[in-house]
Design a protein that fits this description.
Layout: H1 11-31, H2 39-46, H3 52-87, H4 99-113, H5 121-141, H6 148-171, H7 178-185, H8 196-220, H9 224-229, H10 234-256, H11 262-274, H12 278-302, H13 311-330
Amino acid sequence: MLIAGHRRIRPAPALAGAAAALLAAAVIAVSLGAVRLSLGEVAGGLLDAGDDTTRRIVWQLRVPRVLAAALVGAHLGLAGALLQGVTRNPLADPHILGFSSGAGFVAVALVVWAPGSPGALAPAGAFAGSLLSAAVVYALAWRGGISPVRFALSGVAVAALFTALSAAAISLSDLFTQAALSFLVGGLIGVGWDHLPRIAPYTAAGALAAVGLARSLNVLALGDDVARGLGMRVERVRLAAVAAAAALTGAAVAISGILAFVGLVAPHAARLLVGGDYRLVLPLSGLLGAALLVLADTAARTAWAPTEIPAGIVTAIVGAPVLLLLIRTRT
């Protein structure tokens, strides 16, 4: 639903604007930090024409972190759009529905109990945890069909359970580490080039799944009975979308920990711009989620300098008022 009197933006300008916003956010992120760089210095560092210090700052510290933030934000934006589409619930979000908490529990377990495990195992394990959460939520919400209210309430309960299990795993371990604790808050501290190949396959798979599901989500928006009348296998589509959202969420959590509200804010912003056509909402949600997290991570690094806070704190500060507004206006 759009604000009264609001005019939708045409698809091409909306997508181009979101891509430009992401590019601008990336340039700002690379230029800001403990050492501030001018646009010329950023360009020189990117083109390998600057001094050694500038090149190291740009290529070894900031560019991989910006790319990771963009990928994680795109994952969460896409996952949120998929979940809002299949549940027809404006409050659906990987964090609220417990997908992130399940992934976070497995990620914490790997850090606490298997600190020597290969880094590439983290996304696969987090995906498994996210998929487990999705299966539990789906089973709890199923009564001959899925009710958006039951799905949301089941997700809240499962999120609380896995968050508690994660906290217990950390507190009962001899390795009460900052790395493990950061999964509960969410952030990109210490992310480098080696993290990007771990998430890239899930990005490609999730994006392809989203493209393939876009038309089906448009039909599903008409209601389950209408969709079935048009020949759609509703539960098969719903399961495919939930699995895709779980894969996207799990890979994101493996890199950044549990980040709240990106998957809630980005799809709503996308629909506000272009309406409810999921062929547009999905890619726009990915772009807006990427831009949002790049900006949030930049604020986390610089707003309280020299202290750096987790980006999850910033996304919560931004997202909580949006959630309250949606509860007031959509429920």
